[in-house]
Design goal:
By secondary structure, the protein is α+β, with helices and mostly antiparallel strands. The chain contains eleven helices and 19 strands. The longest helix is centred in the N-terminal third of the chain and has 22 residues. The two termini are 29 Å apart.
């Protein structure tokens, strides 16, 4: 099963995520009872009313969190909120994954405030996030995810809309996204985007839960057989779009998925030795693969097309290498989603011709069929030492691996 979180239009907040999970099928009574029982861990905050109701947002029926609070505080230490959340998840006997998610989410929020204000974690004070709202969102989502057994599923996030304009809060006014949002998403692989909505669409609480749920981002929906859809309504209303977070749960084609960068450039007047060295250097920089194709360009000129598959975090360094090593004046950059057959890495120790060797191999599985590929560098070394051809060496090793898997 796969869960797609779609905040492309309306962004994400804690209450929107919680409401969308209820709309997806999480037991709302279980969530409400769990949240009410957690109230005691945060003094000076009382939940007068909590419920979920159906509402229409710009023509779309969604679920909304109804909340009435009575609170008496000016601010709270971040650790006070964290302790209340941890005590709540323990008393509710949530799964270890749910407990870890809740703790990591509040840790992310505290750490972002610590870095922004240059203070220690122990000194962080919450203002907007000091309300019991924060506990309700994080604990409620942890309960809902546990109830739907989503911690064991693959979770993918579409690009996250953060809105636009300015944000005014306890520290004054600044451009949107505010520092907390930037800090939370920094170093994650999730992608943000702005819009012409003149307001904040993604809140720190929503963001911190999102980065602790998934690090998998895609620009397009994966192949899915859809089982259920959930819509979680936010508080604000907009003229141009429905303020709802969309969750889509379904069955994938059993292939993993990710997004890669494809770099291409045409080079000529370069020797084969330089191209061979280029492949080695690019692979050392973390490229996933490099291919070179011969071709003909304008005026019948021979050329070599260099094509590199890499991750976004390696892209700049690989581009530098391409330019410095080839002298190219331009590189085309494309982003591509891809499906990947699930695979795992293994090692085995075998005795061949009275010699012991540790051999690495990758095993793939698709539609109940498995296959494996032996690491070629290991084949070369063993082939040389036992004085047999690579083909014969591979045959010997394959038989031994197949025996061990029986």
């Amino acid at each position: 099963m796969v869960l797609v979180i779609d905040p492309q239009i309306a962004g994400i907040s804690g209450d929107m995520l919680l409401s969308s999970l209820v709309d997806l099928g999480a037991n709302k009574n279980k969530i409400i009872d769990g949240i009410k029982s957690s109230e005691k861990f945060l003094p000076n905050s009382k939940i007068k009313k909590i419920d979920f109701e159906k509402i229409k947002k710009h023509g779309i029926e969604a679920t909304r969190l109804i909340l009435e609070l009575e609170e008496n505080f000016s601010d709270r230490k971040g650790l006070e909120i964290k302790n209340a959340i941890n005590e709540s998840t323990k008393s509710l006997q949530l799964s270890d994954k749910a407990k870890s998610f809740a703790e990591s989410s509040i840790d992310t929020l505290i750490l972002s405030e610590s870095k922004i204000h240059g203070t220690t974690i122990d000194s962080v004070h919450f203002h907007e996030a000091a309300s019991i709202d924060t506990l309700i969102d994080i604990v409620g989502v942890a309960i809902a995810l546990d109830d739907l057994q989503l911690f064991d599923e693959k979770i993918i996030c579409m690009p996250i809309c953060i809105g636009g304009g300015e944000v005014t809060f306890s520290h004054g006014t600044m451009s949107n996204p505010a520092s907390a949002i930037l800090e939370i998403f920094k170093n994650s692989f999730l992608k943000i985007k702005g819009s012409d909505a003149d307001t904040e669409l993604t809140t720190p609480t929503g963001a911190c839960m999102l980065v602790n749920l998934t690090n998998s981002s895609m620009n397009y929906y994966p192949g899915l057989k859809i089982n259920s859809v959930g819509y979680g309504a936010g508080e604000k209303n907009f003229d141009k779009f429905s303020n709802v977070l969309k969750l889509v749960r379904g069955i994938s084609n059993n292939l993993n998925s990710d997004t890669v960068q494809i770099l291409e450039t045409n080079v000529d007047d370069i020797s084969g030795e330089i191209l061979g060295n280029l492949i080695e250097k690019i692979m050392e920089k973390g490229a996933r693969d490099v291919s070179i194709y011969h071709g003909i360009t304008k005026k019948g000129r021979p050329t070599n097309l260099v094509s590199v598959i890499c991750d976004e975090q390696n892209m700049d360094e690989i581009i530098d290498t391409l330019i410095l090593e080839t002298g190219t004046l331009g590189i085309r950059v494309m982003q591509s989603n891809r499906f990947i057959v699930p695979r795992s890495e293994h090692t085995i120790t075998l005795n061949i011709d009275s010699q012991s060797f540790t051999i690495r191999y990758k095993k793939s599985s698709f539609k109940e069929k498995t296959d494996f590929k032996i690491e070629f560098d290991d084949l070369k070394v063993i082939s040389s030492k036992i004085k047999k051809s690579i083909k014969e060496t591979e045959s010997i090793i394959r038989r031994e691996i197949e025996k061990s898997d029986e």
